[in-house]
Design goal:
The complex is a heterodimer of chains A (about 220) and B (about 190). Chain A has helices at about 35-40, 45-65, 70-85, 95-115, 135-155, 160-170, 175-180, 185-205, 210-215; strands at about 10, 25. Chain A is mostly helical. Chain B has 2 domains: about 30-85; about 90-185, no CATH class. Chain B has helices at about 5-15, 15-25, 30-75, 120-135, 150-160, 165-180. In chain B, about 15% of the residues are buried.
Amino acid sequence: MATVAPAVWQLETSLSTGGNVAYARSMGVIPEDSALMLRYKDGDVAAFELLYRRHNDSLYRYLLRLSLNRDVAEDVFQDAWGKIIKARHRYRPTAKFTSYLYRVAHNCFIDYVRKNKRHMVVSAIDPDCSPNPGDEPDLQVEKTLARQRLDIALRTIPDEQRDAFLLHEEAGLSIDTIAEVTGVNRETVKSRLRYATKKLKATLAEPAVQNQRTA
Amino acid sequence: MNQDDDKQEAIDIDPQVSAHYERLADEKTPANLDRAVLREAARAVRADNRMGSFGAWFRPVAFMATIGLSLAIILDLSDTSIFGPPDDMSLEITPPVPVKAPAEPATEAAGKNRPQMTPIEIMRKKKSVSAQSLTMDAPAVCSDEQKSTVEQWWKCIEALRQSGLAAAADRELENLRESFPDFEAPE
């Protein structure tokens, strides 16, 4: 999503039980994530909702495929946002908000794994119960199967490589930022990405039957 | 290296995998999770506002309450005589009943032979002197010059009575009689 640093902007919020997304209308400028977070720091809840709606789905998918467990993903998701909310007074826009968000989420996941090492169970990520109503039934089935193959493929690669891949694909982070989030150097990130995509490509290229056998 | 260079580098790795992922990974955050997070965000701001307004008035009220309580304790513990003597006491010293007892000559101007005092009379004199010591301590109303002669002293006493200062006049009369025991007030 392209954002432009705003000079002056106005925020109008429409909250309803239907969950209408808070929208920002400025003098032709979309507020930056950092600006929204600073507004929330000053007490603007609508700014937080806008910020949240921008990143919630991608962060959820990141945690879902990182943990390979829906319950774990939901717990860590709520924990990560909770930490961001509590730390709002100390927030400083020294880096992109996305980097900050995924760093927090990554650390929350690491902490969760440390505390629940024995109880971590990799389970199949159930497909969404509400498929896209616009899709035809055949397309929905195909998509479901393809998604399962992707999940299986992701499960076959090591956790660190999967982490780097997901940070790149979901968060859109640069190699340097991924290195900062995961606490490794740039070359290590490049190497992990390379191996991850290589393995995924090979797994996704395999016939479906063979993929199910290896799952 | 900027993000575009990184992206190019990643695309060189395998754009097909990225495209495949982008097409399939379309899960949405569960609605209950959205509600929980947004509720927590709103609650945090409300808590901030509550603490802000609470703190704004709490401190001055607490300060005033502490001052008030301290004053109440001090006043309760202090002696009530600060506000005035108890009802059964009186600061006013009533003048003693004048005792007509022969007194020793107080001045040489008297220059008269005084009779010898009996022991009883001496004791009465002492009583009256002690009782009158408070009155004697009262500030003199008639000046020494007025007291130099009986006539002037009597005039001073009369002036005091006419002024309404009966108690002072009585005191001066008593003093006069101390000095001049044989003085008889003209009617």
